[in-house]
């Protein structure tokens, strides 16, 4: 063991921008020299990080807690009582008052963290030590980043669709003669609330719902197939879907078609009864019920 050990370092003040504005803290090299009994010396260098806080991340609208590793364990000045104060700042280092945040404990917590235009905040911790005589001492951390990321979009509801011929103010099944009309046949969308909800994945009230930020919704409809014989319709019908403030034409041939593009927040809509299914002229159609499988896809958009 050395008889004497010297530490030589140049640690900047806590208010220095190297520390205060360094999200991961400021690394400092400390030169260590140990002198042995025989007069020889041993030298080495250790690296410490000044600041105490490290970058964090949270999903928008989720709860967040942060207990700095630098405080577990930590040795505080003897005879002094610590109190804690967290400061939350925007991207311009301006303090903000976060609703639902606990800022006076060693562990910082924030309920349902909101996103902001910059998609991040800064966090800073100040610990004030007070002794029995009212004397105080402050420790202050670096400013670290709390990154707020968008939650993945979630497809909550899609509709089953049923189309029939609407004639003489009544829904009716189309006949082979109808489908062989020279101009093709247009069938009307009929919300089928009487259909058992466990028959398909979707719901029967025409409801579409996607939760999340920055996403695109698309739809692919497979070719119509006779549920009894397996015969595939030899023409390509077109779904004309209509909802409030939107519409889209989807070919029934498996092609993926975008319905809602680069949506930036939650979306909910109900299909209008103005939605239709157009079937080009089709001769010699075997009787029966024809079904197309609908594949709804939500993708993250920039």
Considering the chains and any ligands shown, give keywords for the structure.
mainly beta; about 300 residues; six-stranded antiparallel sheet; 2 helices; elongated
SSE layout and pairing:
Elements: E1 4-8, H1 17-20, E2 26-35, E3 41-50, E4 56-59, E5 64-66, E6 81-89, E7 95-96, E8 101-102, E9 108-110, E10 120-130, E11 136-140, E12 144-149, E13 154-157, E14 163-167, E15 170-172, H2 176-179, E16 185-189, E17 207-211, E18 215-221, E19 225-226, E20 238-243, E21 246-251, E22 256-263, E23 267-270, E24 276-279, E25 290-291, E26 294-300
Mean pLDDT: 85
Please give the alpha-carbon distance between the first and last residues.
60 Å
The major sheet is characterized as: 6 strands, mixed
Compute the gyration radius: what is it? 33 Å
Number of domains: 3
| Poorly predicted regions | 4-12
Helix vs. strand class: mainly beta
Oligomer: single chain
Strand segment count: 26
DSSP helix fraction: under 10%
Note the overall shape. elongated
Please write the string of helix (H) and strand (E) elements. Answer: EHEEEEEEEEEEEEEEHEEEEEEEEEEE
- Discrete helix count: 2
Strand content: over 45%
Protein name: WxL domain-containing protein
Descriptive overview:
- The protein has 3 domains: 1-51, no CATH class; 52-149, Sandwich (Immunoglobulin-like); 154-300.
- The protein is 3% helix and 46% strand.
- It contains 2 helices and 26 strands.
- The protein has helices at 17-20, 176-179; strands spanning 4-8, 26-35, 41-50, 56-59, 64-66, 81-89, 95-96, 101-102, 108-110, 120-130, 136-140, 144-149, 154-157, 163-167, 170-172, 185-189, 207-211, 215-221, 225-226, 238-243, 246-251, 256-263, 267-270, 276-279, 290-291, 294-300.
- Strands 4, 6, 7, 10, 11 and 12 form a 6-stranded mixed beta sheet that branches. It has a 6-stranded antiparallel beta sheet with strand order 15-14-16-24-20-21, with no helix packed on it.
């Amino acid at each position: 063991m050395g008889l004497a050990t010297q530490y030589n370092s140049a640690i900047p003040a806590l208010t220095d921008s190297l520390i205060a504005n360094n999200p991961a803290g400021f690394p400092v090299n400390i030169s260590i020299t140990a002198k042995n009994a025989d007069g020889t010396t041993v030298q080495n260098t250790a690296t410490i990080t000044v600041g105490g806080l490290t970058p964090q991340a949270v999903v928008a609208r989720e709860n967040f807690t942060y207990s700095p590793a630098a405080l577990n364990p930590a040795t505080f000045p003897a005879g002094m009582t610590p109190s804690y104060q967290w400061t939350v700042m925007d991207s311009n280092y301006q303090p903000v008052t976060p609703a639902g945040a606990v800022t006076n404990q060693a562990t910082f917590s924030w309920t349902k963290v909101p996103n902001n235009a910059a998609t991040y905040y800064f966090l800073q911790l100040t610990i004030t030590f007070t002794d029995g005589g009212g004397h105080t001492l402050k420790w202050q951390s670096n400013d670290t980043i709390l990154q707020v990321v968008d939650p993945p979009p979630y497809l909550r509801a899609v509709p089953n669709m049923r189309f029939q011929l609407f004639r003489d103010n009544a829904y009716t099944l189309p006949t082979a003669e109808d489908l062989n009309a020279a101009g093709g046949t247009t069938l009307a969308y009929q919300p089928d609330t009487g259909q058992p909800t466990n028959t398909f994945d979707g719901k029967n009230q025409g409801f579409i719902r996607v939760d999340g930020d920055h996403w695109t919704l698309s739809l692919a409809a497979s070719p119509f197939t006779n549920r009894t014989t397996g015969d595939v319709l030899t023409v390509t019908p077109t779904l004309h879907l209509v909802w409030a403030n939107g519409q889209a034409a989807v070919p029934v041939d498996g092609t993926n078609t975008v319905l809602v593009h680069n949506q930036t927040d939650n979306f909910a809509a109900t299909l209008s009864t103005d939605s239709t299914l157009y079937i080009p002229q089709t001769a010699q159609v075997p009787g029966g019920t024809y079904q197309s499988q609908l594949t709804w896809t939500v993708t993250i958009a920039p």
